[in-house]
Amino acid sequence: MSTTKTSWPEVVGWPAAQAVTQVGTDRPDVAIEVLPTGTSVAPGFNSKRVRVFFDGTGSVAATPVVG
């Protein structure tokens, strides 16, 4: 069983910058994209990417996941 973290539900509602720090600490091997909610993104899975979507207040709006 893998112990590599692939989602961060605990950061929903956090300031985006704080969430990026947490994801980067847990998974220094992934690239983190910070995007406003509703941004169009290219389809496809990337095991070395985590997208952090934030709302109008700058808080994380959805669980960041690898992909």
Task: Provide an overview of this structure.
This protein is α+β, with helices and mostly antiparallel strands and 67 residues long. The protein has one domain (9-66): Trypsin Inhibitor V, subunit A (Trypsin Inhibitor V, Chain A). The protein is 16% helix and 18% strand. It contains 1 helix and 2 strands; from the N terminus they run αββ. A two-stranded parallel ribbon has the order 1-2. The two termini are 19 Å apart. The mean pLDDT is 95.
Notable characteristics:
67 residues, alpha+beta, Trypsin Inhibitor V, Chain A, two-stranded parallel ribbon, 1 helix, 16% helix
Outline the secondary-structure elements.
Blueprint: H1 16-26, E1 31-36, E2 49-54
Parallel strand pairs: 1-2
Task: Give the structure's gist in a few sentences.
It comes from Brachypodium distachyon. GO terms for molecular function: serine-type endopeptidase inhibitor activity. By secondary structure, the chain is an alpha+beta fold.
Domains (count):
1
Characterize the largest beta sheet: strand count, sense, and whether it forms a barrel. 2 strands, parallel
Estimated radius of gyration: 11 Å
What would the principal axes of the Cα set say about the shape? globular
The count of helical stretches stands at 1
The secondary structure category is alpha+beta
Strand proportion, as a percent range, falls in 15-25%
Share in helix: 10-25%
Q: Please state the second-level CATH architecture.
A: 2-Layer Sandwich
